[in-house]
Design brief:
5-stranded mixed beta sheet, two-stranded antiparallel sheet, 7 strands, binds magnesium ion
């Protein structure tokens, strides 16, 4: 089995939609980035790439490449899934979203379902948690939202990984 971790943070600004785990979330600000800046999907991509030993999201989808400008990050996740498909199976993934606001609990199940759907796994294999940082640091001041992900992969049937 292989474990991988992912971390991402983006700045919150006015005039952008807030997308987390592929789900549009009502809020007066959104995350700034080259893509839709979905920190949850980015952290999941990096965790998967890390576990598979395939580098990181910036290596595969550089922000210097206009092909990824404004892209739906679930499409990036779909591409990462294609890279590991046939080699690895996701056992489970666990995400922590760090945000002072908005409250994410009402959107948790939708995010879990969406990520599971893109990865071709059951929703029970995807866990999303959310926490504030008690007002501390840039996230606590509402300047951005961060996400962490840990994923466990097992070899796909018929593959032999060292
Ligand atoms: Mg990112």
């Amino acid at each position: 089995m292989r474990i991988g971790m992912g971390y991402d943070v983006h700045r919150l600004v006015s005039g952008r939609r807030l997308i987390l785990g592929g789900i549009p979330i009502p809020f007066d600000k959104g995350l700034l980035g080259h893509s839709d800046a979905d920190v949850v999907s980015h952290a999941v991509c990096d965790a998967l790439l890390g576990a598979a030993g395939l580098g990181d999201i910036g290596l595969h989808f550089p922000d210097s490449d206009s092909a990824w400008a404004g892209i739906d990050s679930l499409e990036l996740l779909q591409r990462v899934q294609s890279m590991i498909e046939g080699q690895w199976r996701v056992v489970n993934l666990d995400v922590t979203v760090l945000a002072q606001a908005p409250k994410l609990a009402p959107h948790r199940e939708a995010m879990q379902s969406r990520l599971a759907e893109v990865l071709g796994i059951r929703r029970a294999q995807v866990n999303i948690k959310a926490t504030t940082t008690e007002g501390l640091g840039p996230v606590g001041r509402g300047e951005g939202i961060a996400a962490q992900c840990v994923v466990l992969l097992q070899p796909a049937p018929g593959t032999a990984h060292a």
